[in-house]
Amino acid sequence: MVESDSHQGIKRVMWACIDCGRESTRRTRCPRCERPRQRTRNALPKRAIYRDPAYRRAPRKGICCRCGLPGADTRDHYPVSIAEGIERGWTIEQINAPSNLHPAHRGCNSAASVLLER
After folding, report:
1. Computed from CA positions of residues 36, 38, 42, 46, in that sequence, does the dihedral angle turn out positive or negative?
2. pTM for the complete prediction?
3. Is residue 49 part of a domain?
């Protein structure tokens, strides 16, 4: 970890990429190494739901569907989660229906996923 000065006088923490060792502001991988990793990860059959055009068109900015505050930065399957939809026998199209996809903060979305796993 190295602190570097930016042109605005703000110190940024730099991390070494775990794949290539290049300096990056991200903790694990630099953007150059992250893209191929995500491409491989998203090709897995269990991630097909995220390749669906309906999912990709859904808004991810706006008011969070979980807490009601502005600044949402992800999409959330709400009120029916992916796991619940699969359990009900829904298709990918039904799970990714516009009425079930809403903007959510990353933290709110993650917290909801953790609650479902318990």
Report:
1. positive
2. 0.62
3. no
Helix (H, G, I), strand (E, B) or coil at 105: coil
| Token code pair at residue 4 | 């570097």
Label residue 100 exposed, middle or buried (CB < 10 Å: 0-12, 13-18, 19+).
Answer: buried
Long-range contacts of 57-60 (CB under 8 A, 24+ apart): 58/96, 58/98, 58/101, 58/102, 59/102, 59/103, 60/103
Mean pLDDT (the chain, rounded): 85
Range of the structural domain that residue 20 is part of: 1-43
Same domain, 38 and 64: no
Q: Please write the tens of the pLDDT for every residue from 74-95.
A: 999 999 999 899 999 999 999 9
